[in-house]
Specification:
456 residues; 4-stranded antiparallel sheet; 39% strand; mainly beta; 6 helices; 2 domains; Methylamine Dehydrogenase, Chain H
Length: 456
């Protein structure tokens, strides 16, 4: 009779228990937003993964004609296929990670697609390892949304990696884009159909298409998310009010002149609308939903940004004007223009004068700390940084042909520039004030926004 010691029995029991423990769950959202873009990445001297794996095992669904990434159903199919080639919790036992890894780093001897990573320290390899080890994404994620004004889609950019991680499709000629404060919805003005498209941020699928009183341009949302304000650039001009709960157009507030851009002030107390035709800023009181005051300047009203007082109230409107290469500063309390700043004309630089659409400077963004303002220069394919509140020029950064709108995500690290002439979104580091990435997007990108999206 074989006698097994208590110590051995316990050891065997623990070994069996360990073997019985399942590996971590492979997270779909992490796969879709972090792993799947790796399959589309072009590496110098190598074919992309998708170039081979649309007809090899494990398979990738072929991209639709003109598509830059997969839709939800295709992503799910890819996830189902590729998770069969990893061992949850064990990156160094997973074919997905070993095949393209150099043999000297512990990878397989041969991979028909070549060796993409020389080390397990490679960022792409680490991303795949994180997925295999069960890493998940938070329920909220920051995204940059780049609308393509001559297209029918919006590119979704992950600012953590500065890569396109999705597309919102179905809105032809999207103009304005804004994210609801709770991150559950994306609102897009649809010029082609004179409507407001409401998109679910978790699926990127439409919820409702709301008719508007006329052709829309830009829009904004109240800080409590209760109302969406849409500028109507048609007829006498108005700001349509959308009840976000009922998803219905409940009122049109008449203003002076057809409206191009609409903003909710940082304190939420006012809606500020600008008219190119009337050269007028119209200010609506959000408490009464009526026009409070107007200010007429010397030229058409283009993009605006807002500085704050110490108590959070609006201090100044910084506004770009038609046919002016720079911006004006308006004191909000006195309702008067107090200063005008011209962007520099760099010596020896080519000055672009074609295709400006009456707006040589058309894009503003203020860093979250309120200390720096960026303004675009279509004349010179650049963005200019100014210190605040003194409006002192800090630098001039070349970004490409016809830079348009700007956005700065909540962390304040980078500014994202819609470069309409190059079909790109250019990323500039706010600290170094240098270009760190150029991202290919859609046709004539213009309006760009950023914020938290709810993903659960």
């Amino acid at each position: 009779m074989m006698i097994i010691s208590l110590r051995a029995t316990i050891s065997i029991a623990f070994s069996v228990a360990a073997l019985a423990q399942p590996g971590p769950v492979l997270d779909y959202r992490f796969y879709k937003e972090r792993v799947q873009p790796v399959f589309l990445e072009k590496r110098a001297g190598h074919a992309r993964c998708i170039s081979c794996h649309t007809h090899r095992i494990p398979p990738l669904v072929p991209l639709a004609k003109g598509a830059m990434t997969w839709d939800e159903a295709q992503s799910r199919a890819n996830f189902t296929a590729w998770k069969q080639f990893v061992t949850p919790g064990a990156p160094m036992k997973s074919k997905l990670l070993l095949h393209p890894l150099a043999a000297s780093a512990g990878g397989d001897h041969f991979h028909a697609g070549g060796k993409h990573w020389n080390s397990t320290a490679d960022p792409e390899w680490r991303t795949l390892a994180d997925w295999v080890n069960g890493k998940t994404l938070e329920s909220r994620v920051v995204r940059v949304l780049q609308s393509n004004s001559a297209g029918d889609d919006i590119h979704v950019i992950d600012p953590a990696v500065n890569e396109v991680v999705g597309r919102i499709t179905g809105t032809e000629v999207p103009h304005g884009v804004v994210i609801s404060p709770d991150g559950t919805r994306i609102y897009v003005t649809n010029e082609a159909l004179t409507a407001l498209d409401v998109i679910d941020s978790r699926t990127f699928l439409p919820i409702r298409r709301i008719p508007l009183s006329g052709r829309p341009n830009n829009l904004d949302v109240s800080i409590d998310g209760a109302f969406v304000y849409v500028g109507i650039r048609q007829g006498a001009g108005a700001v349509d009010m959308i009840d976000a709960g009922a998803l219905a157009n409940i009122k049109s507030v008449p203003v002076k002149g057809e409206i191009h851009n609409v903003y909710v002030t940082p304190d939420g107390k006012f809606v500020v609308a600008g008219s190119i035709a009337a050269s007028t800023i119209s200010v609506i009181d959000t408490a009464t939903q009526t026009l409070a005051w107007t200010l007429t300047l010397s030229a058409g009203i283009r993009p605006m940004a807002f500085t704050r007082n110490a108590d959070g109230s609006t201090k100044q409107i910084i506004v770009q004007l038609s046919d002016f290469h720079g911006f004006a500063v308006v004191d909000f309390a006195s309702r008067k223009e107090i200063r005008r700043i011209s962007l520099p004309d760099p010596p020896g630089e080519h000055k672009e004068t074609e295709g400006l659409q009456g707006s040589p400077s058309h894009g503003l963004a203020i860093t979250p700390d309120g200390k720096m303002l960026w303004a675009t220069s279509k004349h010179y394919g650049a963005i200019a940084a100014y210190s605040l509140p003194d409006c002192k020029l800090l630098t001039f950064v070349k970004v490409g042909s016809h830079p348009d709108w700007l956005t700065i995500p909540p962390d304040g690290k980078n500014v994202y520039v819609a470069v309409a002439g190059d079909d790109t979104t250019v990323v500039v580091d706010n600290a170094t004030r240098k270009v760190v990435k150029t991202i290919r997007v859609g046709s004539v990108p213009k309006r760009v926004t950023s914020g938290w999206l709810q993903r659960e």
